Amino acid sequence: MQNSRRCISLLCATLQTHSIRLGIGTSNMRLLHRRNKKHETNVSALFKPVQVQANADAEDVGSELVGKLEKAELLKILNKFTQRREVKALCSENGLDSYLQQQAFGSFRRYCIEAENLPVDLHIIFSDIMQGAGHIDDVFPYFLRHAKTVFPHLDCMDDLKKISDLRQPANWYSNARAITRKIVFHAGPTNSGKTYHAMERYLSAKTGVYCGPLKLLATEVYNKANERGTPCDLVTGEERKFGISENSPANHVACTVEMTSVNTPYEVAVIDEIQQIRDPQRGWAWTRAFLGLIADEVHVCGEAGALELLQKICETTGETVEIRRYDRLTELTVEDSALGTLDNVMPGDCIVCFSKHDIYTVSREIEARGKEVAVIYGGLPPGTKLAQAAKFNDPENSCKVMVATDAIGMGLNLSIRRIIFYSLVKPTMNERGEREIDTISVSSALQIAGRAGRYRTQWEHGYVTAFKSEDLQTLKRILSDTPEPLKSAGLHPTADQIELYAYHLPNSSLSNLMDIFVNLCTVDDSLYFMCNIEDFKFLAEMIQHVPLPLRARYVFCCAPINRKMPFVCSMFLKIARQYSRNEPITFEFIKKNCGWPFKLPKTILDLVHLESVFDVMDLYLWLSYRFMDLFPEAANVRIAQKELDEIIQQGVFQITRLLKNTEANQNMQDGETMNYNVRRITHVKEPRMSSASRGRLTERLLAQGLLTPGMLSELRKEWDAQQQMPPKESADFGTESDDEDNYGGFKKTRRKRRK
Ligand SMILES: Nc1ncnc2c1ncn2[C@@H]1O[C@H](COP(=O)(O)OP(=O)(O)OP(=O)(O)O)[C@@H](O)[C@H]1O
Ligand SMILES: [Mg+2]
């Protein structure tokens, strides 16, 4: 039980106890700056003291030379020493602030009292002081030696600060700086032909790369280019497809922005949806692409509000921005009345919700009125999303209404006549990692509204309205606003930088290293901000007890998984454990753990679970590109994943029936599990608990749906097994790193098999 508690507290630490949360949006950069300042005073608390072994010398030479030390006397000297003003001043001069002083004094006192034999030099100093032959301040050099062992950063603060000096990210990309790039900014509202014009240039070039925000968009470009006779490869985190063949790379590439190569020269590069550069989580990928692409022409597409920031960044690269402005190609009208009731839904309507719970409610109610619905939300597999989009777009299909989350804001081509905002508030995570409800931003409202009346679809005049009449005025106000100009672009520490940190602080956990990095780094906050590292830290802490080399640990923590999905998280942990034992993660392993062969979902809970399984397979594929030898069965996993996508598709086609079954089950069962499951689906509606009312950690995690009973028992087993394994250094560099992987600048890591 003790072990499992520790295991759970590990998870909890991730979820609740971090003092530093960096939910940084561009709008609160000033705040960040101040917060950084504030943290400067307690950044010391991030440095965890290293335990120093007592009895450093095997033989008690000191006692032989000058006799044994009286412990009570020794304690008196130590207490006096720690209270002396001169000593405190010396401490400050040597980088020990009051927090570190307290820690180091305590550690030094314990060390001196508990040691049976002190190092001979220290022993003699104490003996001299006791006999009036030495001064109490003479202890200081020995204390400092101890303090530097306990806090190794004292000796390398300057190095650490240098490593995390992020003031000139433009200089990280010498290949891009070596050429003169032509930067073209295609600015305009949604549906104005920005991407279209950039793509025309891309397709006419000899070589080109398209960097998009979503797999679906990259896939669309890949398909379009190949259809037009321009062979094009597809590169996403989990997939590679080839326009010609695996052995002959095409001259054109369509990729997700995180996968952008900053080592390959191109004639034309397109960076789509550049306003995402301000995204608190993913912004760093756009910054990296914008600064690092080696292309004669870099075409960026997006909101006009990004222009000033891009121009300022270009001042640091010595480039100029050519601007091409576009107007919306079709008309978009905000209606004068709200929808009021779902009875008023018409063909071509898309109701946009901001929670899955609302998606379920609305689709159920529309179907109850005898109308078919297509459903799209972020968690659905790509095949399912495309199938739902195709059903809705097909003029011959009887399904004329769509219910979607803001997942449709970017990417999919949908024939929408009218967008109806079911609500104007969206649950978000604040900077402390707590859930909050926020009114949607002007930018995202315009993106979503812009989906109506798409050029060259059956509905060329778009309409927008709200579901509730009380929201209509607010919606009108939001839509008449211009999106706030972007203030800064995201940055993220690279694996190399963290590896250097680990070299200096070998006893620190990866999560701790990230915290220290973020707190010590210097960023030019008139241009950049540090991206939120909470997801990374969450994963790092979850696998902290798993013995892994640092590089591999780093790559694992970059895996794009949703930490709100307990099944995916527990599989992540299992896979990491298997990897750490150097055992291949086979298709059999996936089948056994994911319940293959898959059955059609009967309830929404089944559907949610299948979505998690899909994500686990994505995780497998993602890892398979980074650790080829231990993930050898990507091909089989891909086939099974496709099969699963089809099963999920069928489930979503019958979503109303699943909802009915779920409700019937709910009435029949009253057990804990059911309660938990329902909460899990409706988690966005849950009120946030105050810390006082949170109760036991495990219960809290279970209630929040962040831990399942099954996962809890797995964790217990994991932990018990771990206790029986020999310990291993956390900062182990036993990996070879070779070719560049392009994921955040991290190298692909092929594991050396441990003998
Ligand atoms: N000149 C054109 N000829 C033919 N089709 C066009 C032209 N311009 C745009 N389109 C089509 O109109 C639609 C909208 O264009 P596009 O996707 O380029 O808009 P966008 O400004 O990038 O919108 P968003 O901000 O939503 O990404 C696309 O289907 C595109 O193919
Ligand atoms: Mg576009």
TrEMBL record:
EC number: 3.6.4.13
Coiled-coil regions listed: none
An example Gene Ontology biological process: mitochondrial RNA 3'-end processing
Necessary cofactors: Mg(2+); Mn(2+)
Region (Disordered): 716-755
Keyword Hydrolase included in the entry's annotation: yes
Catalytic reaction annotation: ATP + H2O = ADP + phosphate + H(+)
GO molecular function, one term: ATP binding
Subcellular location: Mitochondrion
Major site of localization recorded for this protein: mitochondrion
Top-level division of the source organism's lineage: Eukaryota
Helicase C-terminal domain residues: 325-502
Stored SMART domains: HELICc (SM00490)
Record flagged with keyword Hydrolase: yes
InterPro entries for the chain: DEXQc_SUV3, Helicase_C-like, P-loop_NTPase, RNA-DNA_Helicase, SUV3_C, Suv3_C_1, Suv3_DEXQc, Suv3_N
One Pfam family per UniProt: Suv3_N
Family note: Belongs to the helicase family.
Function: Major helicase player in mitochondrial RNA metabolism and maintenance. Likely component of the mitochondrial degradosome (mtEXO) complex, that degrades 3' overhang double-stranded RNA with a 3'-to-5' directionality in an ATP-dependent manner. ATPase and ATP-dependent multisubstrate helicase, able to unwind double-stranded (ds) DNA and RNA, and RNA/DNA heteroduplexes in the 5'-to-3' direction. Regulates mRNA stability and is required for the correct processing and maturation of mitochondrial transcripts.
Protein name: ATP-dependent RNA helicase SUV3 homolog, mitochondrial
Organism annotation: Drosophila lebanonensis (Fruit fly)
